[in-house]
Amino acid sequence: MRWKVAILTASDRGSRGEREDTSAQVIRELVEEEIQGDIIEYRVVPDEMDEIMAALIEMTDYFQADLILTTGGTGLAARDVTPEATLSVIDRSAPGFAEAMRMKSIEKSPRAMLSRAVTGIRGSTLIINLPGSPKGVHESLMAIIDVLPHALSILTGREQEHADES
Ligand SMILES: Nc1ncnc2c1ncn2[C@@H]1O[C@H](COP(=O)(O)OP(=O)(O)OP(=O)(O)O)[C@@H](O)[C@H]1O
Ligand SMILES: Nc1nc2c(c(=O)[nH]1)N[C@H]1C(S)=C(S)[C@@H](COP(=O)(O)O)O[C@H]1N2
Questions:
Q1: Segment 52-82, tens digit of pLDDT
Q2: What is the pLDDT of residues 121-164, one digit of tens each?
Q3: Is 132 helix (H, G, I), strand (E, B) or coil?
Q4: Residue 104 CA, closest ligand 2 atom number
Q5: Whose CA is nearest to atom 24 of ligand 2?
Q6: How far is C-alpha 130 from the geometric centre of its chain's CA atoms?
Q7: What is this structure's pTM?
Q8: How many A from CA of 128 to the centre of ligand 2?
Q9: Domain coordinates of the chain in residue numbers?
Q10: Spacing of C-alpha 3 from chain mean position
Q11: In what residue span(s) does the MoaB/Mog domain sit (predicted)?
């Protein structure tokens, strides 16, 4: 079985259909190319705590994603609540991913320190917050992508299936 990955975009504009969700496209490409994962669910919600929480819970408990990658809502603006919603649904914190993303990203853009992204575990699902911009998504995800397969193997007790296996 390949890694089951869900994408959650938290964006007021995106949820109103006012902007093409290129950040989610960046995530999809990196997941498919770099870790050969399958996108099993994709959703866009406004920057509302209850809607983000509900989507995260459904993606873990119902869709049983191995990995959820969120984009947006991690900054300092009043409506940025993705980290709080994530903290409300996780059982265990896994801060190393967020630390690595900020550390690597700050070398390229000092503004990366504005992201309050968190990473944690609900059941056997790893939840990772990414910033909203496509550039922020790419830089952040590339900082951790090499470690993700090993992390998911430990968390799920499975290995990623290779492309030539059924
Ligand atoms: N899902 C996305 N797809 C493409 N670009 C995005 C996305 N989210 C954010 N961006 C880009 O990153 C910039 C900064 O993101 P920020 O979260 O402040 O967006 P916003 O438009 O102010 O808020 P919201 O996305 O909640 O409506 C935006 O101006 C936009 O150019
Ligand atoms: N790697 C990386 N991280 C980044 C950025 C970036 O350009 N590259 N932009 C930052 C900026 S400008 C903001 S405001 C925060 C929060 O973005 P968000 O509210 O869209 O999640 O992410 C930061 N993280």
A1: 999 999 999 999 999 999 999 999 999 999 9
A2: 999 999 999 999 999 999 999 999 999 999 999 999 988 776 55
A3: coil
A4: 1
A5: 112
A6: 6
A7: 0.96
A8: 14
A9: 4-156
A10: 14
A11: 6-151
Say which residues have a Cβ less than 8 Å from residue 98's Cβ, sequence separation at least 6: 117, 118, 119, 128, 129
* Token pair in block for residue 93: 């914190």
Residue 165 Cα to ligand 2 midpoint, Å, equals 38
For residue 119, give the 3-state DSSP assignment: strand
Q: Which amino acid is at 15?
A: S
Query: What are the pLDDT digits (tens) for 19-58?
Result: 999 999 999 999 999 999 999 999 999 999 999 999 999 9
Whose CA is closest to atom 8 on ligand 2? Answer: 136
Kindly report each contact of residues 162-166 with a partner whose C-beta sits within 8 Å and lies 24 or more positions away, as own/partner: 163/36
ipTM of this complex: 0.94
CATH architecture for the domain at 4-156: 3-Layer(aba) Sandwich (3.40)
